[in-house]
Amino acid sequence: MQWMMKNWTLCFWYSALYVIFVFGGKYYMEKRPRFDLRPALALWSAILGIFSIFGAIRTIPELAYVIHNHGFEFSVCNPSYFDGPTGFWAFMFTISKVYELGDTLFIVLRKQQLIFLHWYHHISTLIYVWYSYTDHLGPGRWFMVMNYTVHAFMYSYYALRALRFKIPRPFSMTITSLQIVQMVFGTFVNVWAYQIKSRGDFCQATLHNLRYSLMMYASYLILFSYFFYNAYLAPKGKFTGNPKDEIVKKVE
User: Fold this and answer.
1) Are residues 160 and 43 in contact, defined by beta-carbon separation less than 8 angstroms?
2) Would 148 disulfide with which of 56, 95, 100, 238, CB 3.0-4.6 Å?
């Protein structure tokens, strides 16, 4: 997609506007009553849930085919997923990171707790994904498939909760666990690609990109693990933030 190649730096403008809105919006809402917005939240989450489900359905078979026929190293280093139908879903995956910024709109207008992990994750992912698209990053195949898959569960859960469906607590724990697994494997993929590059073999990724990606995934792993501990394992009364995980809090 040539438009993305020429306009990827727009992600910095989107991120700057996002930060202004987040903290400006929190200040604006400070002395105003919260909005409910439950129907809008359900619709918003359902759109992202359906989108992620289709994205996972279209990209998982390609990943499985590549691993079966060419091996794991090829799946990490060769950007062949930019060809054919998965090329379209790679583009849509990149664009969707702007749409996902709207998640914070509901948190701000509903006057719910906005934790660092939420807005940091949105901004850093947006910038990294848009930047990496221009390089046709080989490891991006794994990052895309994992993100589509986890978001298929996560946003479907958001939608059901917004519609007041009673879902057992272990389900939200499972989603947070899947996010942690995603960060663990994302870190592993980065290390694997870095080792391939270091020995002089082909891998479609710059060392600069891999270093940035490794730091990003490692920071996510630490933050999500810390969040999981505080939300589910810490003794009652010891957690200084929200006693529920972000997934549940978003839709209450």
Assistant:
1) no
2) 56
Q: Evaluate whether 112 touches 178 at the Cβ level (below 8 Å).
A: no
pTM over 0.85: yes
CA distance 216 to 219: 5
pLDDT, residue 55, reads 98
Would you say residue 8 lies in a domain?
no
- For residue 181, the Cα-to-chain-centroid distance in whole angstroms is 13
The active-site residue, picked from 118, 121, 122, 151, is 121
234/239 Cα distance (integer angstroms): 7
How much is the mean pLDDT over the chain?
Answer: 91
Which residue range is the domain that position 214 belongs to?
Answer: 14-25+34-251
Which tens digits make up the pLDDT trace of 112-167?
989 999 999 999 999 999 999 998 999 999 999 999 999 999 999 999 999 999 88
- 85-99 and 140-162 are packed helices; what angle lies between their axes, rounded to 10 degrees? 50
Domain assignment present for 7:
no
Residue appearing with tokens 């990209």: 59
pLDDT at 45: 96
Q: Residue 5 domain-assigned?
A: no
Using DSSP's 3-state secondary structure scheme, residue 175 falls into: helix
- Region 11-19: mean pLDDT is 96
Amino acid of residue 73: E
Catalytic (active site) residue 121: yes
Q: How far is it between the farthest Cα atoms of the chain?
A: 60
In a domain, 130, yes or no: yes
CA dist., res. 46 & res. 155, Å (int)? 7
Inter-CA distances, 64 with 10, 57, 190, 196, 246, Å: 33, 11, 19, 21, 32
d(CA 221, CA 64): 25
